[in-house]
Amino acid sequence: MEKRTKEKGAGEIMESLKTKVLEQLALAKQASRKTGLLRTEEKNEALALIAEQLLADEANILAANEQDLARAEADGQPASYLDRLRLTPARIRDLVDSLEQLIRLEDPVGQLIDSWTRPNGLVMEQIRVPLGVIGMVYEARPNVTVDAAAIALKTGNSIVLRGSHSAVQSNLALTASIRSALSKSAVPADAVQYLPYKEHASVDLLCSANGLVDVIIPRGGAGLIQRVLQQSSVPVLETGVGNCHIFVDQSAHYDMAEAIVLNAKTSRPAVCNAAETLLLHREWPLDRQHALLARLLAAGVELRACEQTRALHSDLAEQLKTATEQDWDTEFSALVMAVRTVDSLNDALEHIQRHSTGHSEAIVSEDRASAERFLAAVDATTVYHNASTRFTDGGEFGFGAEIGISTQKLHARGPMGLPALTSYKYVVRGTGQIR
Amino acid sequence: MEKRTKEKGAGEIMESLKTKVLEQLALAKQASRKTGLLRTEEKNEALALIAEQLLADEANILAANEQDLARAEADGQPASYLDRLRLTPARIRDLVDSLEQLIRLEDPVGQLIDSWTRPNGLVMEQIRVPLGVIGMVYEARPNVTVDAAAIALKTGNSIVLRGSHSAVQSNLALTASIRSALSKSAVPADAVQYLPYKEHASVDLLCSANGLVDVIIPRGGAGLIQRVLQQSSVPVLETGVGNCHIFVDQSAHYDMAEAIVLNAKTSRPAVCNAAETLLLHREWPLDRQHALLARLLAAGVELRACEQTRALHSDLAEQLKTATEQDWDTEFSALVMAVRTVDSLNDALEHIQRHSTGHSEAIVSEDRASAERFLAAVDATTVYHNASTRFTDGGEFGFGAEIGISTQKLHARGPMGLPALTSYKYVVRGTGQIR
Predict the structure, then answer these.
(1) Which CATH number fits domain A244-395: 3.40.309.10, 3.40.390.10, 3.40.50.2300, 3.30.530.20?
(2) Under DSSP, is residue A244 helix (H, G, I), strand (E, B) or coil?
(3) pTM for the model
(4) Which end of chain A is more exposed for a tag (fewer CB within 10 A), N or C?
């Protein structure tokens, strides 16, 4: 066996990989035809069986995870990496909870979006249908395997998963458990496929399988997302970076501004809806500005300020680092914040226009006209008046489940709930109409 | 000047092209920020000014078109090509009529799609906004230049146009006329950009300008669409081929089936919603089958039939060519039709599943249960019961304007009206909420 592999040329290995991947994609496509027609109760029953099976297979899953952890540790991966990779009984319980929550969510498939009758008597209906086959390329966290598969199945889709190779044993154990549950349900087990191949070519094959795969969702770092975006001929749902701003207007309520900025920066600095830049209206009272900056510093936030801010608060100058041009474009994902003094709402809008990644942007202001101008002019998935940017999240929006936060404008924008995994079709009923 | 160009290396020319294209894209992006905030009346006024200006510039436009025609003729292009390229006073009048119709259509921008209040008091609104900058890559017909620009402006977008080089003089004259009209309106002239560069690299630059361009729409042959799909990292709205089927069920109404098949095949065979394959239920009365085939033949349709059909209608055998496997997958776009006898609805569904391009599919049947099964099971933008596939069209759907017919499932599917050129954003109003 070992010998045969060694004897194979690179071309032969590539051909064999291609055959295997395309076979799995064809099975997923085939299964999607059945899954897309199932009733909500049938899909919910399958989700309940998955929850049961994960608990039954817990020992197996944790043992597989141990193998991945041991390899990652031997490779010298940092503790934060190991933590993301680790499965525990509590984390499996969280997955089961998510499945139970998903069962209670409304099924978007089959929903009548619109209907009308044409003058010639044709009766038109626009009906929500599954996308078909979803390709998911993701990194590290094995819980994504279960969450993504469950959301795909709830919306009548098949899913082809390709996680990072460091989590391959965990992911294989999880998908085996899911498929074993499905084999007792109305959902075909083939609706969930895992690509266990280390070769990056397996991602390329997935991303170029137009006709077999309907959408690719990359979840992970900017490198992964950019690579998928560049390579994929299958449409991609992009979940991007968040360089979010908070503009404290001259009329901002003191305590509210302080609470919102603190919350948006410090409550969870590593996530994409955390704020990165604070824009201070020059005419917001200087003592309040001072108090706010002092509170941020006291909370352990490193502040990188423009020259005007440093001059206005010279007593803090030692604690205020000088911001570079690059800082305005950086998603720090840490307790670091850029600070800029602006002369007007217009200046704030111009700064945001130049540096925003279009994720989440907020204004704190007691002036209704300024707020409305900000909300209309800023081009982002979510714009806030007097609230923290941290609310850009499927759960906080009330969607119940979240596939990710789209920063593109096509198909879905902002937090994506179940409808983001659906399309529609037109059903037209006639009585012999011709054109 | 000539000399300098000759001295330039390929790299230098490429750099200069890149600079010029990126400059135009940046202008379009800048203009989109203003266009997206205009009131409906301001956009409609701009459209009316364009209509006026096109009529005023008619002599110029036709003279430019003459140059393109002369070059195409010298290149030995066929008459059909010259016809697509040709502008006439009547065709300019048609463009003006389309503009007037567009003015009367509802503006989707600003529409409140959904709104709700969260338990924490946040007031959520989902509001329709323009996409931003649309990149349009298209072939031959210069009328697309005006139609596409007008639809983009009505929906608050900027547009960057790149037509085929054979129509460059016509397209430049048309865009000059449009921009001259815009300069008298609230819409910035820079909202309409034309890329006059012959180099295919200008298309590549457009398709890789993530951040400046929000969507690429290719309009033209399969080759153009595939090239754009393969190359673009900007999301693409795919308008694809239509290999459409009509299934005549055993219970089909005789005259209705005949009328629908004749209409779907012969009324305009070159378009994507024309039928390509006829599936005949074996138990539909043989004399009716015979009559239908004879009528198709009498209408000049070349029939390529399966062996069973040829055996069942042996008296027609000389006129029925033998279908090859490839015929089931061919969009003939001509008076040619493949014919297959199937034993059941299941067989018809299986054939369609294997060979459909997911455009438009129809069943003719008096049996409601069969029809409903067909409508649910067939995965296509539009499925018909007792009507011709020819109705898959923005005008026939009542959309007023059509950007194209999407055969992908993301963002928009089937005939695309004005809302297909929009996205949405969430506007969240709070009273100091933090998380």
Answers:
(1) 3.40.309.10
(2) strand
(3) 0.91
(4) N
